[in-house]
Fold this protein.
Amino acid sequence: MSSTMLVALLGLVIYLLALLWLGCSNRTSLGGSADNYFLADRKLRSTLLFFTLIATNFSAFFFLGFAGAGYRIGLAYYPMMALGTGLAALSFGTLGCRVRAISCEHGLITPSELIGQRLPGEAIRLVVFVVMTLFTLPYLALQPLGAGYLLETLTNGAIPFPVGATVLTVAIVVYVVGGGMNAVAKTDVLQGVLMFSLMLLAFVAVAHGVGGLTQVNQLLQQEQPQLFSGAGLNNFFTPRIWFSYLLLWPLCLPMFPQMLMRFFAAEDDRSLKQSMVLYPLVAGILFICPVLIGVWGHGAFPDLIGRAADQIMPLMLARFAPSWLTGLVMVGALAAFMSTLDSQLLALSSMFTRDVYRRYLRPEASLNEQVRVGQMAVVALAVAGLCIALRPPEAILTLATHAFSGLALLFPVMVGAVYGLRFSALAAVLSVLCGEFILLGFALQWLPEPLAAGFLPLVPALMISLMILGVDSALFAGRRGEHGSWPSALRRLIGIGE
């Protein structure tokens, strides 16, 4: 057994035992309330809230995908991701504070309950539930899929993919079922610290191995100046693509149910606003590390094509870092997978419990019964995700690819409902469905690519959605004079004025 494999296995065992210990020490009794199980009694303070927000959003794509994108696109990938994430974090202290107040006042737990409280009728509740579920389930399945393959590669096949995916999924189910949001948030602190520290160690080790920051950057800038250009390799970032991505991240990130429900669980506005400040700072520091490692990969591995580029992080570590560090960094990538999966399981289980079981099957369900159903839903969702991961259909990758845009189309309706804008529930439903249909048309090539005019498909889809809401608002504003206006709501959203 190689030293890399030995260190990786030892690190993995210690990591899993620590997770299980944290989960078991924060168990939620069956006598606890739904608020306690799903939202940690709405008492997530600054440190816990920050780590659970960032660990939930930083999947293994942060370790492997960022480096691969740096290799394929160049350094331009960094400012796009860092700036987009910074803009998205504005929603923590603006939209987040408003969502927290409404959910606390009315005892709301899920996004569908939030939208249903603000807009009448069942249709918009169901649309939000279906869209969030449809675009979260593929990612739920991709987590054990990626973790299993990573563990198999890390151990040179000693732990086969099905065994690795199953073991990691079972570990997550144990502490999520036992502890709910309390356990998820506290394990996210461990996972977040692990991700941050190991990424920084990997960056320092690789930078030293390639001869130092200045030397390797100067050499690559002479050989491939496009790697350091604003447009990236092969002019990947046109101005319209830049605009599209900077629009995408702020709209989609707060619409992931596992992220939105963190707003529900915050103890106070101060905790959300501190996360709003810290999140872009930490992302700005950390994002540069994998992207630069990917850029430097052109010097050592100049001929990687397609998905092979996503292996540049382990390749660079194997070439330039100590073997023990390679194993530990891959454990960090597994932590990133797991910190996303546990949050997705809890978010979806709460939605199935509250938005399906309690609302349509057993409206009289007690709080204790809701907790039990939620725990069973965690197990069922984990089993379903694992089964999909073991035999993934081709469509799952396509659906996951479009998930960000699909969720981003909920943003105007959610913001409008939260801030009391003048549009009807019917307009809200039509705006989402029409926008999603346009995305589907581009994905299936029913709509020709030139119709997007060089933008990502999200942009024309979002324009149609906003047009529907705007027309409805203009036609029927007089009948709903008690609601706010678009300009005043936007001012409140960005923290200006009211």
